[in-house]
Design a protein that fits this description.
Structural class: alpha/beta
Helix content: 25-40%
Number of helices: 14
Low-confidence stretches: none
Strand content: 15-25%
Strand order of the largest sheet: 1-5-4-2-3-6
CATH superfamily of the largest domain: Alpha-D-Glucose-1,6-Bisphosphate, subunit A, domain 3
Distance between the termini: 17 Å
CATH architecture of the largest domain: 3-Layer(aba) Sandwich
CATH topology of the largest domain: Alpha-D-Glucose-1,6-Bisphosphate, Chain A, domain 3
CATH class of the largest domain: Alpha Beta
Number of strands: 18
Largest sheet: 6 strands, mixed
């Protein structure tokens, strides 16, 4: 876990009950509510959503206690996608939101991420303030007594408001569309099928029976084999795979081929461009996006900017530059016209709406972008060695050598994972054999130096 400082690239995350304990959740809830609601003159309200993992109830109880201890009201929304909490925070009278989820990670992990009153994830400065209180006792929090203590209320009906909002982002119905959905046994089990069916689609859902430990287990956007099989066997026009907290989505076309986040962004960007609704004719992607996306951008006169990996960096670039569409290859797509964070359901609805309006199959739409061969090797390293990736001379020399060999025919990327003890070695190019060889050489050097 990224303890030492609490927050990684997407909240506090670790194995539940050893790294992310109820004690830590209590402290984070107390400090988070204190920092995020400090300016309010009324009793603050903090919304709490969760995914379906077994540890969520335990951590929710601890978070609620922490929130109430500083005089705030904890509003329990129940199982809800991350983007639902972001939406509900900014459209109800809430002062902050919390989601208990470890996203695409397996069930033994869990996480805590906050949203401010505008529905945005927290800035580094706010996170550091919370960390300083939790880890360093940087501020003494005055604790109310008597009638000043916070309380807990349940608001199970709020998820339906989010579903109605998501549906309102499309301008057509989905009558005649046959759609397969993989809910990852996670948060989308309460939203995806309901939203699609009420728009008129014929929907078949798989992995939609969470039991606390089957979230992301050989299903969802990180394990799409069963969805591919389901689409091909039953002749669906599109398959949709969400991750555990439903802030990302990947698609399968009618032939069983993957349509990843890059292709989804390409389709949506060109559609918005054609309607003069793509702000500044620009798409914001990350350095992990496929080379083919940038080639497509050049061919279609579409500006594509690159940021560091992580939706927070995409969002920062979008907000500072006034752009409306951005995201990651992983299917984390941000549509600022409708939301403040990645939203798997809204992204899926937009994609299906393009299919419906154009009458084109998903494979036809996805053909706008050619995916270049890509090899990704995850190298297990010691967590404390990750900072050395940027300074080690032998790694730098190996990286330079790989770039020299691929000059003009590909690109090389080395990056440390923000949430796991891994360094990712990624190479793209036209020749699969060549990039595989170069990636293996580079991975060995990284492993010998940092493993």
């Amino acid at each position: 876990m990224n303890l030492g400082r609490l927050f990684g690239t997407d909240g506090v995350r670790g194995i539940a009950n050893t790294e992310l304990t109820p004690e830590l959740a209590f402290k984070v809830g107390r400090a988070g509510a204190y920092v995020l609601t400090g300016e309010t003159k009324h009793k603050p309200r903090v919304l709490i959503g969760k995914d379906t993992r077994i540890s969520c109830n335990m951590l929710e109880a601890a978070l609620c206690a922490g929130i109430c201890s500083v005089g705030a009201q904890a509003v329990i929304v129940g199982v809800a996608p991350t983007p639902a909490i972001a939406y509900l925070v900014r459209t109800t009278d809430a002062d902050a939101g919390v989601v208990i989820s470890a996203s695409h990670n397996s069930f033994e992990y869990n996480g805590i991420k906050f949203f401010n009153s505008e529905g945005y994830k927290l800035s580094d400065g706010i996170e550091e303030k919370i960390e300083a209180i939790v880890l360093d006792n940087a501020e003494v929090i005055g604790l109310p007594t008597h009638a000043g203590i916070g309380d807990i209320v349940h608001a199970d009906d709020l998820v339906s408001k989010y579903i109605e909002f998501a549906k309102s982002t499309v301008d057509c119905d989905f009558a005649g569309m046959r759609i397969a959905v993989d809910c990852a046994n996670g948060a989308s089990t309460v939203t995806a099928k309901k939203a699609l069916e009420s728009l008129g689609a014929q929907v078949s859902a798989i992995h939609d029976a969470p039991d606390g430990i089957n979230i992301n287990d050989h299903c969802g956007s990180t394990h799409m084999e069963s969805l591919v099989e389901h689409v091909k066997k039953n002749g669906f026009g599109i398959g949709l795979a969400f991750d555990g907290d439903a802030d990302r989505v990947l698609a399968i076309d009618e032939n069983g081929e993957l349509v990843d986040g890059d292709k989804i962004m390409a389709i949506l960007a060109l559609d918005l461009k054609g309607k003069n609704k793509l702000a500044k004719n620009t798409l914001v992607a990350t350095v992990m996006s496929n080379l083919g996306l940038f080639v497509m951008g050049r061919e279609r006169e579409l500006d594509i900017l690159q940021t560091k990996v992580g939706d927070r960096y995409v969002l920062e670039e979008m907000l500072s530059g006034g752009y409306s569409l951005g995201g990651e290859q992983s299917g984390h797509v941000i549509l600022l016209d409708w939301g403040t964070t990645g939203d798997g359901l809204v992204t899926a609805l937009q994609l299906i709406a393009v299919m419906k309006r154009t009458g084109k199959k998903l494979s036809e739409l996805a053909a706008v972008m050619q995916t270049y061969p890509q090899i990704l090797i995850n190298v297990a390293v010691k967590n404390e060695n990750k900072p050395l990736l940027a300074t080690d001379r032998e790694i730098a020399a190996a990286l330079e050598a790989a770039n020299a060999k691929l000059e003009g025919r590909g690109r090389v990327l080395l990056r440390a994972s923000g949430t796991e003890s891994l360094v990712r070695v990624m190479i793209e190019g036209k020749d699969q054999a060549e990039i595989t060889k170069e990636a293996s050489i580079l991975a060995e050097v990284v492993k010998s130096k940092l493993g």
